[in-house]
Design goal:
The complex is a heterodimer of chains A (337) and B (821). Chain A has 337 residues and is of the alpha/beta class. Chain A contains 13 helices and 8 strands. The longest helix of chain A is centred in the last third of the chain and has 18 residues. In chain B, the strands form 8 sheets. Chain B has a 10-stranded mixed beta sheet with strand order 13-14-15-12-11-16-17-32-26-25, sandwiched between helices. A 6-stranded mixed beta sheet of chain B has the order 8-7-6-9-10-18, sandwiched between helices. The chains are: A alpha/beta (337), B alpha/beta (821). The interface between A and B is large, with 57 and 72 residues.
């Protein structure tokens, strides 16, 4: 009599474990306007792919738990609110060091894994607080900069802001681009701006925030991605979290494909950061699927992919507890930030 | 099983099985044995049975009945018995039943999806997200058509009892495509699912019981081709609807020829997937995935021929290979696989054979580095490059996950390559240039054209083929036509009226002295003399000239070098016409193809030509009236026939720019244009009666719609038509649009029907020749419209003209255009 089909008949290319590594920085290249102009993005097709990506793939049980732990290590734990205080930032940093309850990790057999977030992301004002709180953890501090979130203060002032943050000890600078340059298709101006910002960053890594929700079209998102990479961005990032539309999968897909294309033509690796509105474990897994299937496993490391989030961590913890105990969890059972 | 730290490192996908527990329990409850669903009851089989297998494991799922001819007969009787009542309960009641079916499908959606994947081997993602939702949508949509039938399809009634035969690639979806419109229009059905995949149909039968569908409205008989054959040949079936291979479609066309059974066929394909240099190539790659690695490539409209602009072909190939590495093949019930199992060993072997042949013929094969599971029947995604159009793999439908790639240089060459196939089911066009997309779409010989998308379907949009991909549409308003006929009461008068001679002086309606359906006989090929019936003395003297044939806008001598005498009503020789033969038909068909630009003239332009034709005929109306009278005597009121003719020409001039298409409301951000397109070259064997009116009534609908014609005029008074040449010339009808070959109509009809470059044939004549025309047309599956020896009242504007003619003169192409920047 017929039984269920054999299990684990899925065979795909095996991937050797990837060493913890740091991708060489993207040096950028001179602006190639011809390349920018030939970018084509078909919105309907992109939306279809984005919609089916998450229905074509899923991870269950051990796989889900492992993927969620991985998601934590890709997280830029973020607080970017007007009412941030040193106390609030210190709490966030404490959580960054120990994002999952120890007993939970033990139940999962993951107590030896290096489970800590990828970075803590704050306003310039709190860089020192964060650095002090994270001392010895190896967790880098990222600062949003350049007149975040609108980015419309004078360029010199924005560059000064970057220098100040770098001087204060930030390892990563999340800058915003001038959306007007994209909307007016002034690619030269965008390129020059990002180039200048990259120089101001010095050794600190630069993440350029496209504010994709304000760029009007997916083609603009693709072109802006490309210009930022040409200008030497280490990461391209979807959103500030302050736009009305933030990190959507279609944005992520377009940006991931731009990164892939850039790598194919230049061999330079550029990271992707999804930020804004990602609150559930399910959404985090969708992003990991997108990155894995469009860019490959190499990108599922903190040097090439980040999830900017604040509330997400709690949901991931709840899902992990559910997997570990078989009981649905509550937010208050996990230490807050 | 891998540990969490290991997976944390490898970031691999693990198993994500959908449980088959509920479905297996259902199978167990039924002892894994099913009978036939006839007249609302389950009937155990009386003889042979067979096993249905799980393609992912090769293990049996259940035992089914091989329905015999006697059991098919029982089912047909049940359907026949149920039909009058099903029609009588009215549109609203039918709508409620269809709505209930849709609701129930939705309520049990996961059950159906799991059962489908178990039985067919398709990934659960597809059965869950594509097949089953489309099934529900189809019933909802057609619940609406049931409700609106009286208003939206006035003058039409059910065909009756429908025999439906569906394939194994989309078992439940094809069932929905067949049953929903049939039931909505008041028909009852006997459906035979494919022998590999009957289980969802049997579960559907239970659903019919659950919702209280009247017994006999839906009957399900299982079995292989023998059961299908019994259904096709059953004398009490009014229509056959078939989806499957062109090979079997051809057999059905031949088997039903002359039977009067309405027929719709949705057959094979080798659909082009055209990629221009300005396409979004990353999206194109996903398009290819959806085109050929959907349902393991076992899709009749699969985009199996990639035609890519030479300049971007290497980039596309590289991207495709990279993408193929990440496809996942495996357990169909795993929620994270892209491709499941091939339906059966026989199909797997066919795919392997063709792939071997592709390699032998020099095409370059590429498959991903990973390997398929070996337990069931799996085949990896396969790409052939360096393929020539002549290669077997470029021509033959593989029906597996195998795609061939060829390059082109210009849009014109892309169209040429795309159309270089016997098939014409679908096509996909990728470009960011709307000018290019909308230029290419109408040039593609395909029932569906997808712009920047592929394999999208909806109940509101008609799906079906051009050429040897079959005829008829499923879905949308156009699909309803397959399940209705014009109401009998539109046929004013009966056969008894037809023989009567009305008083000419009365001026009232009169019937022409036509042979009744029963007495009409095929004109034998060797019958050389054309005899008008007797009548009063002629009014004009015979004209001493030999009318030639009219081909490509020129009067040409018949190839045979023979002429046929034309006798007048007194039996005197009125003149002679050329005796056309097969070579003349060949030349006329060539001329008609050369005139295909006619389809591209504006509808307004075609209307103007037809109005001009009417004008010029009016100027010579007396001459034509005299000629008619001379040739037919009492049988014709010449003046009246000319008057009616001019009016009819006006009708088609009027229709030329008014029989337009629709924008379907498909549930996407999309416009779906349903465009009536001409069929191409139409062969028209005109009715014997009403020589002039019959000619324009049958030739002009096609011409108005942009077809070109090869017409065989009535043999009774062909001189009236040869007189028409000059009128055609002076009316700016471009040469080759209307070609006229005189001779023995039934002999020429055979040649036309057997000509594989004729796209459609209309035959008005005897029952025997109607059958012959349908039979011979199976060669290239040309569209046929025959009268089975039942004459029409050509003078009647309802019977002799109108929408029915325009429907027959066109085929609907659905063009899907997603938008959004």
């Amino acid at each position: 009599m017929a039984e269920n089909p054999p299990q684990s008949t899925v065979l795909t290319s095996t991937t050797a474990p990837i060493e913890l590594q740091v991708a060489p920085r993207n040096p950028g290249l001179p602006l190639e306007l011809e390349w920018v102009e030939e970018v084509r993005v078909n919105r309907s097709a992109v939306e279809r792919r984005a919609a089916t990506l998450r229905t074509r793939r899923t991870v269950k049980k051990e796989w889900q738990a492992a993927w969620l732990l991985r998601a934590i290590t890709l997280m830029d734990l973020t607080t970017l609110a007007g009412d941030d205080t040193p106390g609030r930032v210190r709490r966030l940093c404490a959580k960054a060091r120990q994002p999952v309850r120890r007993d939970l990790l033990e139940t999962l057999g993951a107590e030896h894994l290096p489970i800590r977030v990828a970075a803590v992301c704050v306003y310039h004002t709190f860089i020192t607080t964060a650095l002090e709180s994270l001392e010895g953890s190896g967790i880098p501090v990222a600062a949003v900069s350049t007149g975040f979130p609108a980015g419309l203060s004078p360029l010199e002032q924005r560059l000064g802001e970057i220098r100040a943050s770098v001087a204060a000890g930030a390892d990563e600078i999340d800058v915003v681009i001038t959306r007007a340059h994209v909307l007016t298709e002034n690619w030269r101006a965008l390129y020059d701006e990002v180039r200048a910002m990259r120089e101001a960053c010095g050794d600190a890594h630069i993440k350029t925030i496209l504010a994709a929700g304000e760029l009007g079209t997916l083609r603009n998102v693709a072109r802006a991605s490309l210009v930022c990479m040409m200008a030497g961005a280490d990461f391209i990032k979807t959103s500030t979290g302050k736009e009305s539309v933030n990190a959507t999968l279609p944005f992520g897909l377009v940006m991931a494909r731009a990164i892939r294309e850039y790598q194919e033509r230049t061999e330079h690796l550029v990271g992707l950061k999804a930020a804004g509105g990602i609150r559930s474990a399910r959404e985090a897994l969708d992003w990991l699927t997108l990155v894995k299937d469009e860019l490959g496993n190499r990108w599922l490391r903190p040097d090439l992919f980040r999830l900017g989030a604040s509330a997400l961590l709690t949901d991931i913890e709840r899902q992990l507890e559910y997997f570990a105990t078989g009981r649905y969890s509550a937010a208050h059972r996990h230490p807050t930030t | 099983m891998a540990s969490i730290p290991e997976i944390f490192e490898s970031m691999s996908y693990g198993p994500a099985p959908e449980s088959a527990g509920t479905v297996n329990a259902w199978l167990e409850e039924r002892g894994r044995e099913f009978g036939l669903f006839i007249g609302g009851n389950w009937k155990p089989g009386s003889g042979e049975t067979f096993e249905t297998l799980n393609p992912a494991t090769g293990k049996p799922l259940a035992r089914l009945v091989q329905a015999s001819a006697a059991e098919v007969d029982l089912a047909v009787r049940a359907a026949r018995k149920a039909q009058p009542e099903w029609w009588a309960i009215g549109p609203h009641a039918r709508a409620r039943h269809l709505y209930a079916i849709g609701r129930h499908i939705q309520k049990h959606s996961r059950f159906f999806a799991v059962l489908e994947s178990l039985d067919n081997g398709k990934p659960i993602r597809e059965s869950r997200d594509i097949d089953v939702p489309l099934v529900a949508r189809h019933f909802y949509h057609h619940a609406g058509w049931a409700q609106l039938m009286e208003q939206e399809l006035p003058g039409r009634e059910p065909v009756g009892v429908i025999g439906q035969i569906i394939p194994w690639n989309f078992p439940l979806l094809m069932l929905a495509w067949k049953i929903a419109p049939a039931l909505a229009m008041g028909n009852t059905v006997v459906l035979k699912p494919a022998e590999f995949t009957s289980l969802t149909a049997l579960r559907f039968a239970e659903l019919c019981q659950e919702i209280g569908l009247p017994p006999g409205v839906v009957n399900i008989v299982t079995g292989d081709g023998r059961t299908g054959e019994a259904l096709v040949s059953h004398p009490d079936i009014d229509k056959i609807a078939f989806t499957g291979s062109t090979e079997v479609g051809r057999i059905i066309r031949t088997a039903t020829a002359g039977s009067g059974k309405k027929l719709s066929l949705e057959l094979g394909g080798k659909s082009p997937f055209i990629v221009f240099s300005d396409a979004d190539l990353d999206s194109v790659v996903e398009g290819v995935v959806d085109a050929i690695w959907f349902n393991q490539g076992q899709v009749c409209c699969a985009g199996s021929r990639i035609l890519v602009h030479e300049g971007v072909s290497q980039r596309l190939i590289d991207k495709l290979k990279e993408r193929m590495e990440t496809l996942r093949v495996g357990d169909p019930l795993d929620k994270a696989v892209d491709m499941g199992a091939i339906i059966a060993p026989v199909q797997l072997e066919k795919i392997r054979d063709l792939v071997r042949r592709g390699e032998d013929e020099g095409a370059k094969l590429w498959q991903p580095s990973w390997s398929c599971p070996r337990d069931g029947w799996f085949f990896p995604p396969t790409l052939f490059t360096e393929v020539s159009p002549a290669a077997t793999v470029a021509q033959v439908e593989i029906f597996g996950p195998v795609v061939v790639l060829m390059t082109f240089r210009t849009p014109a060459e892309a169209v040429e390559l795309a159309n270089n196939t016997r098939y014409g089911l679908a096509a996909s066009v990728w470009t960011e240039n709307i000018n290019l997309a909308l230029d290419v779409a109408p040039q593609l010989k395909a029932g569906t054209v997808w712009i920047n998308c592929t394999n999208v379907f909806d109940a509101s949009s008609g799906f079906g083929g051009y050429r040897e991909s079959g005829f008829g549409r499923e879905g949308g308003r156009e699909g309803l036509r397959e399940y209705v006929k014009w109401a009998e009461n539109r046929r004013g008068g009966g056969a008894d009226v037809r023989g009567e001679q009305a008083d000419r002086r009365s001026g009232g309606p009169r019937a022409v002295g036509r042979r009744s359906a029963k007495t009409r006989k095929a004109v034998k090929a060797d019958e050389q003399t054309v005899r008008p019936s007797a009548g009063p003395p002629i009014r004009v003297p015979p004209i001493d000239r030999t009318a030639k044939l009219y081909i490509g806008g020129k009067q040409t001598r018949p190839d045979s070098g023979y002429s046929l005498p034309v006798l007048d009503s007194a039996g005197e020789r009125a003149g002679e016409v050329g005796q056309g033969n097969r070579k003349d038909i060949r030349n006329a068909v060539e001329a008609a193809h050369k005139a295909s630009e006619w389809a591209k003239t504006t509808a307004h332009g075609r209307a103007q030509v037809l109005y001009y034709l009417a004008e010029n005929l009016a100027a010579r109306s007396e001459e034509f009236a005299d000629r008619l009278h001379a040739l037919l005597g009492n049988e014709s009121s010449g003046e009246r026939e000319v008057e009616l003719t001019i009016e009819r020409i006006y009708s088609y001039a009027a229709w030329a720019d008014k029989y337009d298409g629709a924008v379907h409301h498909t549930p996407y951000r999309n416009v779906t244009l349903a465009m009536p397109e001409p069929i191409g070259v139409l062969g028209v064997v005109c009715p014997e009666e009403w020589p002039l009116l019959g000619f324009v009534s049958t030739v002009l609908p096609g011409v108005a719609m942009g077809n070109t014609a090869v017409a065989i005029p009535s043999s009774k008074a062909p001189l009236v038509i040869t007189d028409l040449y000059q009128v055609l010339d002076t009316s700016d009808v471009p040469g080759g649009v209307i070609n006229i070959v005189t001779g023995v109509p039934d002999e020429l009809a055979r040649v036309l029907a057997a000509h594989d470059d004729v796209d459609g044939i209309w035959y008005f004549g005897s029952r025997e020749l109607s059958a012959e025309v349908e039979r011979l047309s199976a060669g290239n599956m040309k569209r046929t419209w025959v009268d089975l020896g039942e004459p029409r009242e050509w003078e009647d504007p309802v019977q002799g003209a109108g929408e029915e003619f325009l429907e027959q003169a066109t085929q609907i192409k659905n063009i899907w255009i997603p938008y959004g920047e």
